Amino acid sequence: ELHFVGKYWRMSGRPTVCILIREEHMRDVHFKEMLDLLAMLKKGDCDGLKIRTGRLQNLISSSCIEHLDFLHLLSADDLPTVEAFQQLEHASIGYQSLTDIPKAIIYNEPTYDFKEFQHRSSRDILEALSRTDTLHGQSQLLGILYFREGPQFWTENGTVKERLEKLTRQAGALRHWSVVRYCSSVLRKLVDSISPNITSILVCGKQITVGVFGHEEVVIDKPLTPREVEAIIYSKCQEHDIYQAVLQQEIILYVGRLISTTSHLFQGILKIRIGWVLQAMILHMKFLSPNPPALESLSPSELRKVLYRVLTLSENGSNTKLTIHERRQIEGALCRVPKNFYDRVWDIMSRTPEGIIVEGHHLPQQPTLTEMTVYDLKFATEVEMFLSRVALPEYRQILVELIMVVYLILERNPELSFNTTIDMNKLVEESFLMYQKDNGIDREGDMTLFFDSPTTITASYLARAVMNHLLKCAPDQGYSRDLCIIS
Questions:
Q1: Can you quote a single GO CC term (predicted)?
Q2: 3-class secondary-structure state, position 127
Q3: Cα gap 229→202, rounded to integer Å
Q4: One digit per residue, pLDDT tens: the chain, 487 residues?
Q5: Cα separation, 471 vs 357, whole angstroms
C-alpha cells in the first residue's frame, strides 16, 4: 500500500498514515515482522520508498488536509455520540519492555471429517453441535445447517447466521484462518476494495478468470460492481471448493496491489486465471515440503508471500530445488508465455492457410488474420483462449515451447509453409513417441520423463516432429524434397 501511494500520489501535501498498534499485535507470533517494518520506517527508507516518521501534531502542517464541508448539513441529533475512554489506574506500570509481553499461543485443534453429516437429519446435527467444542467442527456443522435450513434457522445459542458471525470473530482472534475462510464463504462475504483491484488489473491490459482449477471459468474483461463480483465468484467456486470462494478474492486483492507497483512480475501473462494461480501455489508448496499446509490454513501474510514466490519463480528458478518438470507445471499454471509470443503465432498463422488445431478446436487462418491485426489484443486473447483448453499446466507449457520451435523453423526457412492444418497435439504426441523409442521407455502414455527433460532435449524432438510434418505435406511440385534443407 505504501508503494502504491508513493507512486500515484498527486494531491497537495504529504500523505499521512497513522498506524495503530494494539497489545494483541504485540502478542502475535508474527510481531517480529511488524518490528522489522517499524525499524525500516524509523530509518526513513521502506524498500526504496522514502518515509518520514514523527508525532502526528508535527506532521499535520505538511499533510494533505481535507475539509468535510457537508458536516454542517447534518443536525446534532444525527451525529453519533462518542464517549471518551476512561483512564484506568493500575498499581504497576505494566510491561517494562516489548519482550515482557507473552506471545499468544498458536491455536491448534484436531480436525475431523464431518461429511457424513450431509446425510444425517438436522436434529442429529444439532445434537452433534451441542457436543462439539472445536471451532472447525462447529463451523462445519453450522455450514451444513446454513445450506440446508437457511441463515435464520434457530439453534440453541442463536440463529445459524449469528453463530457463524460470532465464530468468524473467535477464529480471527485465534488466527484459525481455515475456519475464518470457511465461515466467510458460507456467509458469502466479499473483501473490501475488490472491484477497484479488478479495475487495476484490467487497465494494465490483463484479463481475469474466476473458477476452480479443472472446472468452468468465467472471464472478467470489464469493471464490475461488488454485487456482480460476488455473484460470479460464489456461483463458480463455492460448489466445487468452498474455501476457494474466499481464497480467490484474496488473490485478486494481492494481484491488484502487486500489478500496480511491480508490474514486471506479470510479464508474459495475458490472462490471470485465479484458480490456476492457486493451483501453482499449491504445487509450489507441495514441491518444496513433504507435508505442506493447506492454503486455506495460511495467514493472509503467508498467502501473499507464497504468491510472490510463485510469481518470481522465473527470476529465481535456478536458485530453487525444483525439477524441470515442476517448473513447467508452475509456469504452465501461471499461463506465462515468452516475449513476443503472440506475434510469432501470427507469423505461423500467415504461413498456415488451413489454420491450427489445439485440443480438437480449430483456429482458422481466415477470417482471423483479416479481422485482426498482429498487434490486436483481440488476437492475443483468441490465442490464449485456445491454450486455455489444455487441462494440464505442464502440457500447456510444452505446447508453448512447440509453437516457438515452429516459429524458429519457419523464420530460418522462409520458403517453407504448411499446406495442411497443424495439429499441435499430434506433433507433441509424435515427438513423445520418438523420445520413448530413443530412450527405450515402455510406459505407454506416461509423459513424466519427457516433461522433466531439459528444453534443449524436448525442443530437438519437437523440431523432428515438425520437420516430419513439413516433409509429409510438401507439394509434389514447386521444389524438390531432395533440395529441401531445414536449418
A1: plasma membrane
A2: helix
A3: 14
A4: 777 777 777 777 778 877 777 777 777 777 777 788 888 888 888 877 888 888 877 777 778 777 666 666 667 676 677 676 666 665 555 555 555 555 555 666 777 788 889 899 999 999 999 999 899 999 999 999 999 999 999 998 899 999 999 999 999 988 899 999 999 999 999 998 899 999 999 999 999 999 999 999 999 999 999 999 999 999 999 999 999 999 999 999 999 999 988 899 999 999 999 999 999 999 999 999 889 999 999 999 999 999 999 999 877 755 568 999 999 999 999 999 999 999 999 999 999 999 999 999 999 999 999 999 888 899 999 999 999 999 999 999 999 999 999 999 999 998 888 988 999 999 999 999 999 999 888 777 789 999 999 999 999 999 999 999 988 876 654 545 555 555 5
A5: 19
163: Cβ contacts below 8 Å, ≥ 6 apart: 138, 142, 155, 157
Alpha carbon separation from 20 to 375, 421, 464 (Å, rounded)? 49, 63, 64
In terms of DSSP bridges, do strands 361-363 and 218-220 run parallel, antiparallel, or are they unpaired? unpaired
**In Å, how far are 20, 46, 98, 338, 449 from 39, measured between CA atoms?**
15, 9, 14, 40, 49
Other C-beta atoms closer than 10 Å to the C-beta of 267 total 12
Give buried/exposed letters for 111-132 (b at 16+ CB in 10 A, else e): eeebeebeeeeeeebbebbeeb
Q: How far apart, in Å, do the first and last CA atoms of the chain sit? A: 52
Residues contacting 145, CB < 8 A, separation 6+: 122, 125, 126, 129, 153, 155, 160
Quick check: helix, strand or coil at residue 442? coil
Residue 391, φ and ψ in degrees, nearest 5: -85, -35
Give the domain ranges of the chain.
Answer: 1-69, 115-187, 193-334, 341-473
Tell me the chain's radius of gyration from C-alpha atoms.
28
pTM of the model: 0.81
Q: Is 309 exposed, middle or buried (0-12, 13-18, 19+ CB in 10 A)?
A: middle
Using left for φ > 0, alpha for ψ between -120 and 50, and beta otherwise, residue 299 falls in beta
Query: What's the rounded Cα separation, in Å, for the pair 291 and 297?
Result: 13
- Cα–Cα distance for residue pair 263/55, rounded to 1 Å: 34
Query: Which residues contact residue 202 at a Cβ distance below 8 angstroms, ignoring those fewer than 6 apart?
Result: 208, 220, 221, 222, 223
Short-list 5, 175, 1, CA closest to 103: 175
Residue 326 corresponds to which amino acid? E
